[in-house]
Amino acid sequence: MTEIREPSSAPATPFVSPGGPSRPSAPPALPAAPVVDGHGLRLRVWDPESAADVDAWLRGLTDPEFLRWNTPLRMVSDAASARESLESKTADAAAGRSMTFCVTDAADGTILGQVGVSAIERVPSHASVGYWVLPKARGRHVATRSLLLAARWAFAEIGLHRLELGHALGHDASCRIAERCGFRYEGTLRGAMWEAGRTDAFRDVHAHGRLSTDPEPESP
Fold first, then answer.
1. Phi and psi at residue 151, to the nearest 5°
2. What is the pLDDT of residue 22?
């Protein structure tokens, strides 16, 4: 697992076409309702109107292991807040700011977790990635397989040049996932994320990055 970032109330960075007029314009739209298949998984968009999706989102964001390593900007504690959170993800995708995928088993559609491409910036051509896996799906390389698919989608479909991944110092499992997916360790960021369950204390973050020109690792 790694950090999942809930959107803040601040407006997104305006998109300005390189070499174009100085007046900001809206960022390019992301592909509508993308579906990504591969490595025994299917990535699809979350549906805020689906009770199953809302329940899985709630279970993921209230899982003790998730909360050990992450402190979301907006906490999710019940079905209503989970639905609101998913609605914000839908709005972010429509605005071109991020794409949050529901990770499912390709064979039967069982929800396994989430993987997202967030903080998308078209001009510098980079974004952040994050993921979590539901407890019953762990130990099956779901995070690795889904991150490989999401990275491929971000490079091929959005045309990004760089993806960044950060996880709390000491989260060795997430470090291994990042490296298996071709995200090289690039350094430690001091005090770059909140301590678990707190917004008044900070901890260090391992920073990883992958370029579109880097070779794509094989799936486990």
1. -65, -45
2. 46
Say what the pLDDT of residue 200 is: 94
How do residues 5-46 score in pLDDT, each as one tens digit?
Answer: 333 333 334 444 445 444 445 667 788 789 999 999 999 999
Helix (H, G, I), strand (E, B) or coil at 142: helix
Average pLDDT over residues 151-179: 97
pTM above 0.70, yes or no: yes
pLDDT greater at residue 10 or residue 129: 129
Q: DSSP letter for 109, please.
A: -
DSSP string over 48-103: TT-HHHHHHHHHHHH-HHHHHH---SS---SHHHHHHHHHHHHHHHHTTS-EEEEE
Task: Give me the phi and psi of 144, to 5 degrees please.
Answer: -65, -50
CA distances from 86 to 36, 50, 79, 114, 144 (A): 19, 10, 10, 12, 23
Phi, psi of 171 (to 5 degrees): -85, 80
Helix (H) or strand (E) holding 145: helix 142-153
Residue with tokens 């909360």, as numbered in its chain: 67
Burial status of residue 101 (CB atoms within 10 A of its CB: 0-12, 13-18, 19 or more): buried
